[in-house]
Amino acid sequence: MIEYKKEQFQNGLRVISEVVPNVHSVSVGIWVMNGSRDEQMGISGVSHFIEHLLFKGTKKRDARNIAFTIDSIGGQFDAFTTREYTCLYVKALSQYLDIVMELLSDILLNSNFDGEEFLKEKQVIMEEIKMSEDMPDDNVHDMFFKTFWGDHGLGRPILGTMETIKALTPEVLKNYFKISYQPQRMIICVVGDFKDENLMSLIKKNFTFNSLAQNNFPEREKPVYKSGSSLKTRKLEQVHFCIGMPGLKQTSEERFVKYALNLILGGSISSRLFQKVREEKGLVYTIYSFFSSFSDAGILGIYGGASPGNIEEILKVVMNEFDEIINKGISSKEMDIAKNHLKANF
């Protein structure tokens, strides 16, 4: 049984921790409840831009110093942005937890968004956008979300667009960082070999947040599903497609039903779509279903890529499977397989 502790400080900062005494490392992750859906359209991509700059320098450390500090404690670090949150994390030898906490607090409280690193990362992100646009599977998923959610924040790409990234300035990033990177919007998770009282002492010491902003971050607008289709013509060898329908939010009591349905439909190598479209008919190299859930909405979708001449038959198989599940249901064998898969991988 997992035994973890939850703590909330007076400034709103939440801490979740679990002591694992038989390891020699500690992992610290900081989740900020801010993602691409929370951005205004004109600054789309600002959350991801901030994430890029978090390890690029503070008022007392440059990027090189941060990198050498992490390497010197046997550490690994990374960060990522999603539609609903941003995360940065460090894994290091457990005896260096104090250094990890001091470094992460310096990054969160004293990041520097000015100068050469800002301009350099702007170019890097624009190259990242170009790369994503050159990858048809990435491109079709962005189109799918845009069609599904329209102008809502969930429908916009996490990276932003070339136009919005070009328009971003250090001042915009600083202002957005100030209102979104506040303790009441953060969760610190710590797992590994550490003493609980030492952890809480380090958090109180380092995460002081002397200049607290008012808790006036706008509430999230609930997305509204839009039916429709989108088509983009490009000179490629294959046609890439997504089909989807409304799913369930993350906290829905029925979410495990959707997890099982996803596995049965196309989420595993024994799934209906993988077996029928790839193994039996040989029409694709890749086809799968996916379940994307958010705090207030969700999507159950299917992705595939195939030669243009195969698309019509593939879509017929997909629609037939929808009809089969609706009209005939799911076998007990399929359900048992899905349950075991979920137990082993959840």
Automatic annotation (TrEMBL):
Species for this entry: Candidatus Schekmanbacteria bacterium RBG_16_38_10
Signal peptide start-end: none
Lineage: Bacteria, Candidatus Schekmaniibacteriota
Highest taxon of source: Bacteria
PROSITE patterns, per the entry: INSULINASE
Molecular function GO labels: metal ion binding; metalloendopeptidase activity
Stretches assigned to the Peptidase M16 C-terminal domain: 168-341
Family (UniProt): Belongs to the peptidase M16 family.
Stretches assigned to the Peptidase M16 N-terminal domain: 14-161
GO terms classed as biological process: proteolysis
Annotated InterPro entries: Metalloenz_LuxS/M16, MPP/UQCRC_Complex, Pept_M16_N, Pept_M16_Zn_BS, Peptidase_M16_C
Official protein name in the record: Zinc protease
